[in-house]
Amino acid sequence: MGSDKPNGADNQQGSPSCLSLGTDETPQRLNAELLAAGAKELETYLQGALRDGTRSARHGTHRFSQSTTQWLITLKQMLSILGYRSWMYREGKSRRVWVLETTAGFLDLEYDPAPLVGTGAGFSYARGYFDADGGMPRNPDARLYFQLCQKDRRSLESVVELLESGEITCGRIHNPSAGVDPNYWRVFVRARSHVQFMRVIGSWHPVKRQQMNARMKI
Question: Which of 22, 166, 174, 209 has a CA between 20 and 30 Å from the CA of residue 30?
Answer without folding.
Answer: 166
